[in-house]
Design a protein that fits this description.
Length: 477
């Protein structure tokens, strides 16, 4: 049986930098990746990053610290992230930005900046590459491929980890399923860098309060690493910290897959709303122009099915900037013709019937909003942007869904990123990093700009260096 100092499971956002650093220490490293390609979620991620104290910030005269970054995160998520893990990653995240730049990262010229897609930081510390996640991948790929040419390193693609071997509570090996069948490797250090579970509806329901899944996650985000850890006795955390992203429209009726290009434009700082957002009953549940996306996401998570109807009319469709700017003309006309979640109606009663909203509630909601538009009353939700009234004829509604970019629950780890059991004891030799430790570990109950990709890179590198060094020390004894 082959023996390795470290086996890294998953060659994605966290696994690749982990492997680069571990291989450079001289430790004998195996990387296994279930897919045919490396890169994981970087193929679809927007790749927004955050970090305080980068060289780019100082070149722009921005004074920022990891303490200020932490304070901003804890303001946004009301302190629901894990302080010990934030303390591990935040002081290193500025260096991660510098490291990407040193290795040819194609930074968007507007960065660092304050981003409003998620709840905004108070300081300009969000960055992204011109190609989003792919810009990050383009830096990692050559470094990773070079590391895998070292005599002490090996990559096995299309190889899935399926279970752990343990003895006396410590890792002794890993069970793998490769192109030629199942086999085992011996190792006393395994890193689960397997990502989240945003493509596994059953696991999502189990770990996230029985909710339906609407998702933009990569198919490889199947949660198998979390299940492997669970079977080995690991504790899980973050099951109660889900917040949906506001909001998506599935690519096809009946599908739960959302394509990022097709996301509706619902950020008031980018496009002020002309529409109403209504519950299944026809009532409003948010101030549509609330500058706080966190407020809107908390409103949405309270809806039983995390969906809402985006209601407008033909005049708004003609006059307003598009609410679905990423959809082609053909996609839109096919949707209005055929999809049950794209509804047209000649009047309010018919719209209520076709969307199954309560006719009385819908009529009352539209009447109250229109009075605010006409200036005869205050908007009941306190909305300020009141461009024009809606209806009474030529009505339209699109059903939008609270959706998943990253999953909240994951494998519980201590501040050395060693996996722990429910009683707090370590599973010796088992480590986890990236979204596998739960998106809520760093973001809490919220979506904090750059706080998935940057910690995956930062802690991936930190863990790879640490485990590689420990392995080399053990080998020298
Ligand atoms: C559309 C979208 C936009 C996003 N935008 C942002 C953003 O702008 N900023 C941000 O911070 N976050 C963003 N996120 C979240 C962020 O991209 C992810 O949380 C992060 O990339 C996950 O990194 P990871 O290394 O944990 O997992 P991944 O990058 O998904 O890598 C996991 C790898 O493990 C492999 N794998 C899984 N199970 C096994 C197994 N059993 N055996 C072998 N291999 C396995 C997978 O195939 C995959 O290659 C976004 C997510 C999505 C979906």
């Amino acid at each position: 049986m082959d023996r390795f100092d470290i086996v890294i499971v998953g060659a994605g956002t966290a696994g690749m930098p982990c492997a680069i650093e571990a291989a450079e220490t001289g430790a004998k490293v195996l990387v296994v990746e279930a897919e045919k390609q490396t890169g994981g979620t970087l193929h679809v991620s927007l790749g927004q990053l955050s970090g305080a104290g980068s060289r780019l910030q100082s070149e722009r005269g921005i004074t920022d610290t990891s303490a200020a970054h932490l304070a901003d995160i804890e303001r946004i998520n009301r302190g629901t992230g894990r302080r010990e893990i934030l303390d591990l990653t935040l002081p290193r995240q500025g260096e991660t930005i510098d490291w990407l730049m040193e290795n040819g990262f194609d930074m968007d010229s507007s960065c660092p900046t304050i981003l409003h897609l998620h709840e905004a930081y108070r300081e300009a510390r969000t960055y992204w590459g011109v190609e989003g996640g792919l810009s990050v991948y383009k830096v990692l790929k050559p470094l990773f491929e070079k590391a895998m040419t070292l005599p002490n390193a090996e990559l096995r693609l299309e190889t899935r980890a399926t279970g752990l071997r343990l003895s006396d509570g410590a890792v002794t090996g890993l069970v793998l399923a490769g192109p030629d069948g199942d086999y085992e490797v011996a190792t006393d250090r395994v890193v689960l860098a397997t990502g989240g579970y945003g493509s596994n509806a059953a696991l999502f329901a189990r770990l996230t309060g029985g909710r339906d899944l609407y998702t933009a996650a990569m198919p490889g985000s199947d949660g198998s690493g979390i299940e492997i850890a669970e079977q080995a006795g690991a504790a899980l955390r973050g099951q109660d910290l889900f917040l949906p992203t506001y909001a998506g429209v599935p690519e096809k009726p009946g599908s739960n897959r959302v394509i990022w290009r097709q996301m509706p434009s619902l950020t008031p700082q980018v496009r002020q709303p002309w529409e109403l957002h209504l519950t299944a009953n026809g009532a409003r549940f948010v101030r549509e122009d609330d500058p706080s996306v966190d407020n809107r996401e908390h409103g949405l998570v309270e809806q039983p099915d995390m969906s809402f109807w985006c209601v407008f009319d033909d005049d708004i469709l003609r006059e307003a900037p598009p609410v679905l700017p990423g959809w082609t003309e053909d996609e839109l006309s096919a949707a209005w013709d055929k999809r049950p979640d794209f509804v047209t109606a000649p009047d309010i009663a018919t719209l209520a019937e076709r969307t199954t909203m309560s006719p009385d509630t819908l009529a009352a909601t539209i009447t109250a909003y229109n009075a605010a538009c006409d200036g005869t009353a205050e908007d009941p939700m306190g909305r300020i942007h009141l461009p024009r009234s809606i209806g009474p004829s030529g009505l339209r509604a699109i059903r939008m869904r609270g959706m998943v970019l990253k999953t909240p629950a994951g494998i519980d780890v201590d501040e050395t990123l060693t996996v722990i059991r429910p009683d707090g004891t370590q599973i010796v030799g088992l480590h986890a990093v990236g979204e596998a430790i739960g998106g809520s570990t760093l973001s809490g109950r919220g979506f904090i700009s750059g706080m998935s990709v940057t910690p995956a890179l930062t802690l991936g590198r930190w863990l790879g260096q640490r485990l590689g060094t420990l392995a080399m020390e053990a080998n020298a004894e």
